[in-house]
Amino acid sequence: MQQTNSETNVSRQNPITWVPSVYFAMGLPFVVLNMVAVLMFKGLGVKDSQITFWTSLIMMPWTFKFLWSPFLELYRSKKFFVVTTQLVTGAGFALVGLALNLPHYFTVCIALMALIAFSGATHDIATDGVYMAELSKEDQARFIGWQGAFYNIAKIVASGGLVWLAGWLLKHYGGVKGAPEDVMHHAAAQAWMVVMVALGVLMLLLGFYHMRMLLKAESVPKKA
Question: CA-CA distance, 100 to 111, in Å (whole number)?
């Protein structure tokens, strides 16, 4: 009887508790690496040619993610990869923030962002896999709007909210027009450090949240 009650509780787990948040987590790394990182490096004084080349290069995993997609079927579950990649991405962004104060910060940040890109692309594969595997066709159609809406909200949060926060923090740390170059660089490094660490914490929290929610969702029986 106890097992039956447990199964009943699990079956009542609504996809609304994880579909929006999973697709929100999907959108953040892509937008940050594709758009926000460009603004960050530009504010830190990195040359445009370097920014263009390296940020384009680190986006390649999203283009070639189909190459390792079949291998995800051979090890653990898709839920495992969703949670793991969110945690890896969160730790990666936090380390990017901390690396901004290093002498060779650009090299370190690009290396970390390459790892985040691979993790983010893998997250995309696993997330779509969970969505298709755990939801009936009826539920897939029902939640497609939530899926797209929260992916777009992630874009707004990243390209709008995070950039605005960085600008506000830049002024807070003394990065005003006419300030010496070293002062501007220090202020920009501090501002973006806070933003990247905060983003990392957010991704880690999403990872821990989905560690619980997707565990329940994984056992939900599909409707015919």
Answer: 13
